[in-house]
Amino acid sequence: MATIEQKGMYKVFPRSGKNVSFTHYCPGCGHGIINKLIAEACAELGLQDRTIFVDPVGCGVFTYYYWDAAHISAAHGRASAAATGVCRARPDAVTIAYQGDGDLGAIGFNNAFQAASRGEKFGCIFVNNSLYGMTGGQMAPTTLDGETTTTTPFGRDPALTGHPLHVCEVFAQLQAPVYIARVSVADTRRIMQAKKAIRKVFEIQRDGKGYALLEILAPCPTNFKMDPLKAADFCMNEMEREFPLGVFRDEEAREPLAARPVPRASSCRDLFVEKDAVLPAVDDAAFAEKRFKFAGYGGQGILSLGLCVAEAARLERRHTLWFPSYGPEQRGGSANCSVVVSGTPIGSPTVEHPDVLVCMNQPAYERFAGDVKRGGTVIVDETVPVKTDPPDGVRLIRWPAIKMAEEFGVPKAANTMMLAALKKFKCTGLSDDNLEKSLVASFKKKPALGEKNRELLRLAEAREHS
Amino acid sequence: MTKFVKSNEAVVMGALYAGCDLYFGYPITPASEIAHGAAKWFPMLGRTFVQAECETASVNMMFGAAGAGRLCMTATSGPGFSLMQEGISYLAGAELPAVVVNVNRAGPGLGNVYPEQSDYTPAVKGGGHGSYQTFTLAPASAQEMFDLTMKAFEMSVKWRTPAVVFADGLQGQMMETVALPEKEMPRPDFSDWAAQGEPRTRGNLVKSIYLDAAQQERFNNHLQEKYARMAADAMGEPYLADDAELLVVAFGISGRIARTTVEELRREGVKAGAFRPITLNPFPREQLAAVAKGRRIMTIELDAGQFADDVRLNLAKAGLGTEAASVKMVHRMGGEVVSVDGAVKFAKEMV
Ligand SMILES: Cc1ncc(C[n+]2csc(CCOP(=O)(O)OP(=O)(O)O)c2C)c(N)n1
Ligand code: SF4
Fold first, then answer.
1. Which ligand is nearest to the CA of A167?
2. Residue A175: which residues within 8 A CB-CB, separation 6 or more?
3. How many Cβ pairs closer than 8 A exist between chain A and B?
4. CATH topology of domain B235-350
5. How far is B121 from chain A (nearest CA, A)?
6. What's the whole-model pTM score?
7. How many helices (H) and strands (E) does chain A have?
8. Span B217-235, average pLDDT
9. Which fold would CATH assign to domain B2-232?
10. Interface pTM (ipTM) of the complex?
């Protein structure tokens, strides 16, 4: 006869903190039998080194006392989520989650269901004893119609609590699982069948085939308030009537799906470091910080215009910050972004008083023109009716960006026309060369467009302006 | 080497350089770019991205992956962060390293997607059940979103407690230049405690349960001793604080507003300085006390005063009761941001 160690259990239970060799389960409890079967299957298949058990919160919480393998003791209901993490982290391990019917059927149902739906590579052993054992015999989703529990003292009333939840049948609607079955441990014949099914769950994991769910009907004599024999009878008769035993899915032979290939990089460096990356900013206290605001409608290229100025600043090794309209400003299809260019590390990212404001529409002008700093500049598209003057000491430039872009036959280039104005009127404190370079670079993926925009930029800049 | 990136993306890069192997997450604005970046870059490096069914799942997936001895992370915002609290407590209770990024949006409830710092208490004091602490860092720039994410992994491994990177919605959207390091961090070896599915880890057990009250108390004492030692890794940044009469204390994005406020005040003849905690737990108490003694103190924050209260507590614990009692705050909520104008005006009324 095999020794207890050969059957996958510790001989005494050191992890319990006491050197005892009896389990914590009540006499006649289904968990006790299932624990033995699981340990045996794991040992017989030689999988103890490879197995990671994910334990539940419920009467099965102390399986780690008994099974001689690595364990992770999860939160109540979360064994399937934790097992997802385990099998993703250790694809070569055999991952087995063990859950009760409160744990899986109630609090953790969606986690278990979604893991099954994703076809996570773990086996889930789900013990259905029709109630919450550990916390004192309350109703579970699997409680039978009329069954008395501590929270259904007058019997479960379907009018108030619905009918028992058939976990296997629900999971069988999913495509990913390879194996779904319901067995019982209420008598010897059933125990033999359960043993085979448990073995199968391990084999599926050993071979990396995919997700397997095994529901096991189990008696809880203590909370059924029955002696072990009567409890087993209840399990075989009443529970099986509601939860027929059987195999709902067996596709063990199916080849697991291979993941689609994705573009690969060999290292972070390979992935992120650009060949033409600019050098880090250098401190230069002599450079006067400039704050820009660009505003207009979404689709007018406002955000890319800001990015273009930001990139030019980076080429000059200035501290640079860009951020898109955020907070309550971002309403009514309008878009804006801010850019800060500085010779020293940038403090506040928000541009309360821009040195330069570019407006492509009327709401933008009305919203921001009054905030512009003394000595600053507002460039506004010619189509915008300017009903109020900007503050004293602020230069106003009305510029036909939209019109020119249309005349050039590239209406989308209105933002490039605005860049031309920034360059022509020397608003940025950045070199012409870098402004052009960054404009071209912004069309990295369409170099022809980059050149076209450079040409338009020059044409626009050359235009007379009164 | 530099890269111009959105702060949220810098978080993903930092995690990858730190050796993070798994990302679990559920989308939420304004943190979603972190999931987007992770969904793209993790698989490209042969690492794992899983879109979880909810934040409860994300954090428990982390529990499994960390328990199995791998570095992992998630990112979320307020509502998702609330859902994760039980799981973070379990991570701390099982002494597992993992990194949670919270890009704070306005609350309570659904609130809106604009910036606040109002998750201060759960992010800094441990929002879940039991006496546990997280290592909490507060970045203020894209560079720090990168650097402090890396640091979060390092500290989480060193102290075996979850680390929180506490940012805000405004910061997440900003683009700035990030300098990338030469090398990636090496993977730590967890085989002495993790369940890795290998012969050498067969005897390992990851758990947070101690059925016996005496054992649970002993474990709690062990945790508290560990957290006390963690104080050695507190970080803070003073700015023009040496000769300051007025000290502006603020973290994260508010810390940057504080910096500009101080510059403006100095331009107007007020001797102001700033102090920015970079770690919020452990709080840089000694560093703050060193520049706070005898100063008038104001905070800038995007919450209802949770941070100011923590500043008072830390000053008081450092023996600066008078300074603690005089702390004033300028704050906004709901997604509105404290303006430099507003902070300057407030400060001038104080001195
Ligand atoms: C979040 C949370 N809620 C509630 C509990 C309390 N609790 C522990 S076990 C359990 C139910 C266990 O029932 P089941 O999953 O059916 O397992 P059994 O004990 O019957 O094997 C509950 C409600 C908990 N630990 N955590
Ligand atoms: S309460 Fe029920 S499920 Fe729990 S150990 Fe006892 S018999 Fe088993």
1. 1
2. none
3. 244
4. Rossmann fold (3.40.50)
5. 23
6. 0.96
7. 17, 15
8. 98
9. Rossmann fold (3.40.50)
10. 0.97
